[in-house]
């Protein structure tokens, strides 16, 4: 199998909506982004923790296992911060690994780092569509601007 689409992990989304996780998407010390390879076959209905994807995490010089902490994370409702009316947008600064040599990263996984892969809830996966690499340079995951969807968005109007 392979990564074929971006998405939100349903079990985590459900737990966030019914408030059984107690995590915030705007926490700038625990929300992380990790790179994954195309060998990952994401199941957005059943995968729930980072240990479900960690065997397919990218590796390389300058890449730290588990990824990087995301900063300037924002949940933007409606027209706040350039977001679209009736759409909740999640955005953050771009994720970057400087002076890195990373081969064939196929996607980026966002998750809440609890300190253990077995209890770190998966939040989203962004499909790169084609493999991306760096060679002793900066590998950057550039998210869309809030008005263009950010990392993900949820339309809350019928």
How are the secondary structure elements laid out?
Layout: E1 7-8, H1 10-17, E2 31-36, E3 60-61, E4 68-69, E5 74-76, E6 87-91, E7 95-112, E8 122-141, E9 152-155
Antiparallel strand pairs: 1-8, 2-4, 2-7, 3-7, 5-6, 6-9, 7-8
Summarize the structure.
The protein is mainly beta and 158 residues long. It is built from 1 helix and 9 strands, in the order E-H-E-E-E-E-E-E-E-E.
Give structural notes.
By secondary structure, the chain is mainly beta. It has one domain (7-155). It has one helix and nine strands; from the N terminus they run E-H-E-E-E-E-E-E-E-E. The protein is globular, with a radius of gyration of 15 Å. It starts with 6 loop residues before the first strand and ends with a strand.
List keywords for this structure.
single chain; about 160 residues; mainly beta; six-stranded antiparallel β-sheet; three-stranded antiparallel β-sheet; 1 helix; 9 strands
SSE order: EHEEEEEEEE
Low-confidence stretches: none
Strand content: 35-45%
Count the domains. 1
Please identify the structural class as seen in this structure. Answer: mainly beta
Mean pLDDT: 94
What's the number of extended β-strand segments? 9
Shape: globular
Distance N terminus to C terminus?
Answer: 34 Å
């Amino acid at each position: 199998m392979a990564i074929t689409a971006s998405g939100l992990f349903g079990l985590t989304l459900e737990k966030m909506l019914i408030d059984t996780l107690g995590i915030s998407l705007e926490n700038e010390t625990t929300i992380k982004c990790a790179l994954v390879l195309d060998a990952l076959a994401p199941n957005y209905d059943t995968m729930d923790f980072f240990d479900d994807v960690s065997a397919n995490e990218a590796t390389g010089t300058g890449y730290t296992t588990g990824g990087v902490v995301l900063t300037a994370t924002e949940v933007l409702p409606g027209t706040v911060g350039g977001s679209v009316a009736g759409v909740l947008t999640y955005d953050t600064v771009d994720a970057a690994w400087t002076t890195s040599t990373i081969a064939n990263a196929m996607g980026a996984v966002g998750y809440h780092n609890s300190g253990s892969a077995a209890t770190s809830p998966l939040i989203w996966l962004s499909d790169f569509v084609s493999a991306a690499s760096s060679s002793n340079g900066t590998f950057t995951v550039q998210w869309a601007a809030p008005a263009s969807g950010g990392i993900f968005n949820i339309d809350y109007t019928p």
